[in-house]
Specification:
The chain has 210 residues and is an alpha/beta fold. Helix content is 37%, strand content 16%. The protein contains 6 helices and 9 strands, in the order E-H-E-E-E-H-H-E-H-E-E-H-E-H-E. The strands form 2 sheets. The chain has a 7-stranded parallel beta sheet, with helices on both faces. 35% of the residues are buried.
């Protein structure tokens, strides 16, 4: 199969890319990004793009499945508006183009607590995106809602690092929904959704990935 992966340079995206390139069922991976990925592979094509001006007629939009792992933080983005652009506008643009080119399966990293009616900006943005993706009516849509994501980041997030350390200590006594979700496990769930035969909209909660 041919897989479209958007967000391959991030923590979860890198894990998806690693697993996809090793999977014999996947013949090719298209990973558009703002910068080249850190790996090269005979199955990998990585066109350089600007997400605020995506090429609408590129042949590589036509795939068997698409996975989106784009995401940032308000602190890193610099403002709420910039955060919304990365976590809402860009993924929605990718989904619309993939759907327009006939891609039947779409899986995306959302967030625990996503709700378009939430009083919290972060959760509200995630919920709004989920609602708009659902309205696109993909034959198969998987919304993955992790809690805190565990893994080795190239960037340091001091507050998140401290929280991870605390949750690692408390993990055995915490409810599954509150435990750390390893990036490798999230990637497995996304790939299973891309390679599977389920239809309709499916939500994968953090407890299933603990």
């Amino acid at each position: 199969m041919k897989l479209l992966l958007v967000g391959a340079t991030g923590l979860v995206g890198h894990e998806v890319l690693t697993q996809a390139l090793a999977n014999p069922r996947i013949e090719s991976v298209i990973a558009p990004a703002r910068r080249p990925p850190a790996v090269t592979h005979r199955k990998l094509t990585a066109p350089i793009v600007r997400f605020d001006d995506l090429p609408k007629d590129a042949d590589w939009w036509r795939t068997d499945a698409a996975i989106c792992t784009l995401g940032t933080t308000i602190r890193k983005a610099g403002s709420r508006e910039a955060f919304r652009q990365v976590d809402h506008d860009y993924p929605l643009a990718v989904a619309r183009l993939a759907k327009a080119h006939g891609t039947p399966r779409f899986a995306i990293v959302s967030a625990m607590g996503a709700n378009r009616n939430s009083p919290f900006f972060y959760s509200r943005v995630k919920g709004e995106l989920e609602a708009e993706l659902t309205a696109l009516a993909f034959p198969s849509l998987t919304l993955v809602r992790p809690a805190l994501i565990g893994g080795d980041r190239t960037e340091q997030r001091a507050g998140e690092h401290l929280t991870l350390l605390v949750l690692q200590r408390l993990g055995p006594v915490l409810p599954k929904a509150w435990r750390i979700n390893p990036a490798t496990r999230i990637a497995e769930v996304l790939l299973d959704a891309a390679l599977g035969d389920s239809t309709g909209t499916r939500i994968v909660g953090s407890a299933e990935m603990a």
